[in-house]
Amino acid sequence: MSFLYFVLGSLIIGLLVGKYSSFHFGNLYEVMLYLLIFIIGVDLGKSKGIKEIRELGKIALLLPLATVVGSLMGGLLASFLLGLRIKWALAVSAGFGWYSLTGPLLAQYSTVYGVIGFLANLTREILTILFYPIAIKKIPKELAVSMGGATTMDSTLPVLVKFGGSEITIIAFVHGFILTAIAPFLIPLIIQF
Amino acid sequence: MNIFIPLLAGIIFGYLFRRRININLDKPMSATLLLLIFFMGVEAGRVEINAVDIFISSLTFAVLTILGSLFFAVVLGGRVR
Q: Where are the alpha helices (DSSP H) in A21-98?
């Protein structure tokens, strides 16, 4: 949770610098983005998540599939409610809670959608932390993992395990791992259309 | 499509050297991320943004993507339980 304060601090300082100064950072933004994407790739490449997917069986693939379809349908509904272009709404929702990827990726094309992508996915993570304990009173705890999207392999995992029990650790990790592998491909793909 | 190049390069590099990469990638990832978000903030600061509209849009997306995920998880996942 403390890293979240650094993230919000960076965003607020950046907003203030952008609003009240005329500093120009050249193409540092793009350099950082490509560097981050490369590091994410290295992390995925050396991860052992694939071995755990095999061990879990059918539910390992069905749950992330449900999260992908459900998130995109939610994004589609949001585009109608808010009057936004479908392409951008789908791209925002394809972040699956991974705000640090979605925001910068979308900001490459549109600053406003970059900020929406960042905040919408950050809010998804926060709402998961707040409402997972309530959701599991109505929905089976392993299925309720889907609300966390890609964050279930790291930032929301401790909350899920605390309230859902240690038996959902692997399913939550694999769910987050698969979505983490999908998001960096799906967001740029949607933006191309 | 540029984004796929560093991503695929990273995945291949990570897979090929998975036994040799012993360093924890959390710290370089966090440092890059904080700088990236700072630069994103700088860009956003230069644009006139209606904070209330952005907040409402973000909240709508967050709630609907969560509800959509839960709905399909119950529909699809409920069959294999």
A: 28-46, 49-56, 58-82, 86-93
